[in-house]
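FAQ: What does a multi-protein file look like?

Like this. Sequence, then tokens, then the next protein.
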Amino acid sequence: MEHVGESKNPLHENDPVTELYGRTKHGGIIFRIMDAGGPTDDREDYVDDAVAEINRSKSLCFKANMTDPTDPSYRQYLEQLFLRKLDDVTILTPFYCDMGIRVRLGSRVFINDNVHLIAGGGIEIQDGVLIAPRVCIATVNHDVNDRHRFFTYHKVVIRKNVWICTNATICPGVTIGENSIVAAGAVVTRDVPGNVMVGGNPAAIIRRIGQDRSSSGRKLQ
């Protein structure tokens, strides 16, 4: 099966994490396919690299989640997960991430408990983002016609100073603009512009932040 060409802007371009791709069993081919949106075929040998990363990530999350949350040593497992120091990031456990090397975290990020990151397609969380309990950020889709074999991937970008409230779901391919707020329980299926509050399923603009409410209920484009 032919795959989409390699992305010109992979998630970790010029980042030390990228070097790890080349040291995997199959040279990180699957991560380049993910950067390009897929599809991947679970019958191919290159899937072994993704399985290895999933197992590594889930094991580290398990260790962090089984450590007393008042014991700061739990952070060492999350630092191994993301391959970076977390002095400028707060993550409360329990926490779940299936591919730590596919996540980029900015500074002053706060992630509350029971957050799930399904990260194959890449997740970028920029500076100052707040994520409330039980938020799910997903970047992977099953193929509609052959959902047990093929998968597609779309990066999620959460821009600076975004606040994502409890039980929200961010779907694959979404970008949330700077300073915006995602209301509790929202299901975000399309890009969100900056400086707005969105809510509902599917999410729509409730109002603009710092302005009047004349744009309430406007659909996302």
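And here is the next protein:
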Amino acid sequence: MHLTAQERDRLVVAQAADLARRRLARGARLGATEAAALIIDEVHEWAWDGVELEKVVARARALLTPEQVLPGVPEMVAHLQVDALFPAGSFLVDLVGPIGTPRDLVSSEGPPRELNPGRPRREVTVVNESARTVRITSHVDFSQINPLLRVEDGPATGWRLDIPAGSSLAWAPGESRVATLVTWEAASGDRRSRGDEEGSADGLA
């Protein structure tokens, strides 16, 4: 049986996730690799079963607690991105702080924090020309969105939705709506890497 590279990677993740389940069953803590694999594997399966994207994100963030992993693992698995296949197509599931209490970059106790500070913004009109709902997640470059969505107001390469990490926006069939976009990089003078703000992606994602 011939397997594509993506199919082989998926099987490796599933195998590591099974190891994680066996360790959890006997009360052992997880390392970074198997912890990430378990989260990624469950995301793929929930997506396959047709669970809504927001519910997938919520479930993934509640899957493991810091007490179930080795010290330092929550910091090592600070950001996961999973290209999961839902019944409506593939969507990027973006998970920030998936182990334990998720880190909310916008709303938390204390003074409210600005979303994506120092980054240029623009507004574009997005039209869904398909007969089904199309969704865009937070960390998809607008040059790579579903071709069934028409973006007016010029090219949008290098821009993404100005929404919290892990969230998404949906366009109903025929819907036209203005969306606010933000660049990937901060403006000069307030330049920070994506990793500094949102954590580093694990290699298994």
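Q: Is there any per-entry metadata?
A: Some entries carry free-text notes. For the entry above: The chain is about 25% helix and 20% strand.
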